[in-house]
Amino acid sequence: MPYPFSDIEPKWQAYWQQHxxxxxxxxxxxxxxxYYVLDMFPYPSGSGLHVGHPEGYxxxxxxxxxxxxxxxxxxxxxxWDAFGLPAEQYALQTGTHPAVTTEKNINRFRxxxxxxxxxxxxQREVATTDPAYFKWTxxxxxxxxxxxxxxxxxxxxxxxxxLGTVLANEEVINGRSERGDHPIVRKxxxxxxxxxxxxxxxxxxxxxxxxxxxxxxxxxRNWIGKSEGAEVDFALxxxxxxxxxxxxxxxxxFGATYMVVSPExxxxxxxxxxxxxxxxxxxxxxxxxxxxxxxxxxAKTKSGVFTGSYAVNPVNGEKxxxxxxxxxxxxxxxGAIMAVPGHDDRDYAFANAxxxxxxxxxxxxxxxxxxxxxxxxxxxxANDDISLNxxxxxxxxxxxxxxxESKGLGQGKVNYKLRDWLxxxxxxxxxxxxxxxxxxxxxAPVPLDExxxxxxxxxxxxxSPDGDPPFARNPEWLNTTDPATGRPAxxxxxxxxxxxxxCWYFLRYIDPQxxxxxxxxxxxxxxxxVDLYVGGAEHAVLHLLYARFWHKVLxxxxxxxxxxxxxxxxxxxxxxGEVEYTLFRNTDGTPVSxxxxxxxxxxxSERLPESEAVKKGDSFVWKQDPAIQLRxxxxxxxxxxxxxxxxxDVVKQYGADSLRLYxxxxxxxxxxxxxxxxxxxxxxxxxxxxxxxFELPLTDTSCDKxxxxxxxxxxxxxxxxxxxxxxxxAIAAMMEFVNAAGKWSExxxxxxxxxxxxxxxxxxxxxxxxxxxxxxxxxxxxTPWPDYDEEALTLDSVEILVQIxxxxxxxxxxxxxxTADELINLAKxxxxxAAALTGKTIRKEIAVPGRLVNIVAT
RNA sequence: GCCGGAGUGGCGGAACUGGCAGACGCGCCGGACUCAAAAUCCGGUGCCCGUGAGGGCGUGUGGGUUCGAGUCCCACCUCCGGUACCA
Length: 858
Description:
Blueprint: H1 5-19, E1 34-39, H2 53-69, E2 73-75, E3 79-80, H3 85-94, H4 98-114, E4 126-127, H5 131-146, E5 150-160, E6 165-167, E7 172-173, E8 176-177, E9 185-194, H6 200-205, H7 214-224, E10 226-236, E11 242-247, E12 258-261, H8 268-271, H9 277-289, H10 292-297, E13 305-312, E14 319-324, E15 336-339, H11 345-354, E16 362-363, E17 377-378, H12 393-407, E18 410-416, E19 421-422, E20 435-438, E21 443-445, H13 475-478, E22 479-481, E23 488-491, H14 499-502, H15 505-508, H16 521-527, E24 532-536, H17 542-556, E25 569-572, E26 575-585, E27 591-592, E28 604-608, E29 613-616, E30 619-622, E31 625-629, E32 631-636, H18 647-654, H19 656-665, E33 673-674, H20 677-693, E34 698-699, H21 705-723, H22 727-741, E35 747-748, H23 749-759, H24 764-773, H25 790-793, E36 797-804, E37 807-815, H26 820-829, H27 831-837, E38 842-848, E39 852-857
Parallel strand pairs: 1-2, 1-24, 3-4, 12-14, 24-25, 26-33, 34-35, 36-39
Antiparallel strand pairs: 5-6, 5-9, 7-8, 9-19, 10-11, 10-13, 10-18, 12-15, 13-14, 16-17, 20-21, 20-23, 22-23, 26-27, 26-28, 26-32, 29-30, 30-31, 36-37, 38-39
Helix pairs in contact: 1-24, 3-4, 18-19, 19-20, 20-22, 21-22, 21-23, 23-24
The structure holds one RNA strand.
């Protein structure tokens, strides 16, 4: 008889809800330590929960339950990142208000999460779409606006025609939209920008103290992209203007043989001559038309046009031609460069393409083959006033920069790749900007007491006939007056991007009902920062950088007391579908080895059962024809592949405890791992074994020495593993314990009770049920975690290995307290060892207490 | 190209600061129970040679350090993730 999970699980879920077991009261005893465990809140999609969600959620739930039992005040909330495109797309198609769809999806998600037995405090639930919530998102935006961190700019933006909106740089991957993989084009538009660049240095520096995966910190560092160099002004021959460039290699200034300005550079119009104008204009038009994707794809061959003008190199007075090319980006540095083809790969390629001179100023390379970008000694770098010749790169940089500064020709400069955050979207389903455009052209904030500013009712969710965002469809909403000045005004029609709401939700959980403030300062002080934050690595730069930025702004405003919101971050690895064995066939049906497949579309593929696959060498081959290699691979779960596992089905078949246990038993949390239904059955069998263990007669006699050792060893192991988030090995240890205890004839309460407590964070429903069977009237959720007795762990005797020069020779039982010297003596006394040593000279004796003895003899 | 991470049985994965590689689970093989099956229980299971006792080889590859290396060092290969004209 399998254990009745379908009775037990709903029973305890109802109990927890009814008894508010996981409620974290507003007025906790703040003398006790706190622990804030946070999950990245989900977007409540229409397709419901996916097995990837409960992975991180189970990990945090185990830690939350464990910390509660360890006496911490635990904050473990859940909510919804509920603005987003799918609900709006659905609204476009059906006319259903996105709020309706969103609410439905949230209800479904909540039910699914509750069926997994997570110990969230549901009274703290927040949704970014809730007016009581986005009131404060708007409030924070006004803070940014007040501080000059939000501004409007006419800027070339990433316009995505398919999504009908602009995207931030971070949302564009290889010239395509991160969501939906649609092409992106550059288009100048009026947009709201947030000045995240003002925080670049702090966002970079404060990474150092965070307990985050090194890879994520590195990605953020790369994204911020700090570089140190100099700005240098080049006079333009025959023009009043000067051309300013940014370079990280001022040491190579004597090697500059031409210059390049970006096609969007403001000086370009002045640089062209009558002869070059048609070609330059043509080139600029073509560059503007190109999507980012095309620019990237064409990156291999350099293109460009000579402008007709010359610049003067400030170090040697040399006249060098100014070109324009799209390999120079307007958005970085000054949008213009000095080209040093001898010591920069891109300039080298360009110089070769257009036959421009290449000059060596750093020795050590072979410029006939490639640019030399390494370190070396400066050559050909002197004028009447200064010489860099003979110096190394680092010294030269400092010397030339100082010289430029003294001559007023340039100065040292730090640059960042990070650009300002494009913060507006031309959509309906997002937070309205609380801003008014007055008839005099100024922008005024909506007064605080009018927040939240609600989105207008509209007849359709499409852009307006004039191409304005959907909000412009409602003229009564759109046209208003500014209460401060009485002037006629038009409301801002853009909406905020989805990231806005997720930038600060972790603060709202702390004080979710507060309608006077975003958060009560006392509560903030107690609960922040988040102690443990778990979520997917896909948010490495986007959400995590934005949230850090807003947090620093709120810190500057005095709203929060800590500089960084998330102390420890852990990324859970993706869960892939089951391993699939695929056989490929030619169009004529002949089987083909997987290693020969270049383009999958030229072949037909057939999924084989595991029994058809045989391991041969490094790969799997077809059982019926071992000459044919199969492809054995676990793929991402996707609807189109049909390999999606629905957690509801798993819960129905094996129960929530089995799902939780399996997700943790699969392997280390951070790792990518394939799903296996057989694996779920394995942990389900384990839970059944536990259930049967508790059918043994329960006794009040105390444990014998061996039982005590097992129990205390398990307490130690499980506690340490949860602290280290090694949930898989904690479960393995519990399995070992149950395998051993299964051989007992009766079950001492002294062993049963701690075991149930240890199991309960992992399999909480079974934990509660067994706890009740043990005669307890109340939930175990707040029962103290058991302590272990170090003394109970030690064995009287241990088996050690005796090696002679590294080869195993004998095994002997020794008292576990034996010292190194005693071990060597005991070892030598062993007849096999003595025999092996006769006639040999002992060179060295090594003994590791409790492990082994190694006698080196020749 | 650059940055980050990882390579251990048929599979997922264990192995503390260098100390008996393969815990635990899956799968497979054999046995018990059963009319039979499922479930459950017991035993076995890295690979190769050997009937056997036993022997040899084994943590991506090649070197090195060490009494001893999955673990440390050097070089390389493969895979995964990120990023890509950032001057």
